[in-house]
Amino acid sequence: MKPEPPDEMAGTTRGDSWVPPTCSLPTAEQPLRVAEFDDFFIDAVRGADRVAPTKLRLKLIPDAEIAKRAGGLIARETDCCSFFTFVITAGGDGMTLDIQVPDAYTHVLDALAARVAADTWPDALEGSSEAFRKRRTGKSTFSFPVLNDEMATELDAFLERLYQRYRQHHAD
Fold it and tell me: Which of 12, 83, 149, 152 has its CA 20 to 30 A from that of 129?
């Protein structure tokens, strides 16, 4: 069972993703940051592993420009959302970006993971309503300007299907 968000975050949606009230980025700039993450995910990410409930590992294209771009995005994001911990690792096996959050912020990591993973296992969309599918805004991104109970339930089901695919993929 996922921990509940702290009271100051309960039911919060801002912009087109879950942005906690503790984020100091001006509201008008939040959609731009979300778009920047989306573009980075599309251009740089070639796989994702949920290594723990509070940690997501992104497999990046091993390229100096990708590393530089990731570093800039990380610096800007930690300025406004200090609960994130980012670690870039480059080596013989390629390049990864680990994103970690405290237990109370796993729902934020869930939203990021959903934006990345939809393209890895597109069959996870099977069984989703047309309204949910219309929330898909790009190759591996979704937009939820408002997250009502029905859409939240459907998002939970979609994430469960993604995690099921992930577990099957890594069981071998």
Answer: 12
pLDDT per residue over 100-158, tens digit each?
A: 999 999 888 888 887 776 656 667 778 888 888 888 776 556 777 778 889 888 888 88
Type of residue numbered 128: S
Reported as type and span, the H/E element at residue 24 is none
Structural domains of the chain, count: 1
Residue 6 located in a structural domain: no
**Secondary element (H or E) of residue 69:** helix 64-80
In-domain check, residue 2: no
Q: Which domain holds residue 85?
A: 13-171
Give the model confidence (pLDDT) of 23-62 as tens digits: 888 888 888 888 888 788 878 888 788 899 999 999 999 9
Task: Please tell me the pTM assigned to this model.
Answer: 0.64
Q: Tell the residue number behind the tokens 């700039």, with chain if given.
A: 29
Residue 7 lies in a domain: no
Token pair listed for 2: 């996922």
Choose among 17, 18, 20, 19: nearest CA to 7.
20
Q: How far apart are CA 32 and CA 103, in angstroms?
A: 26
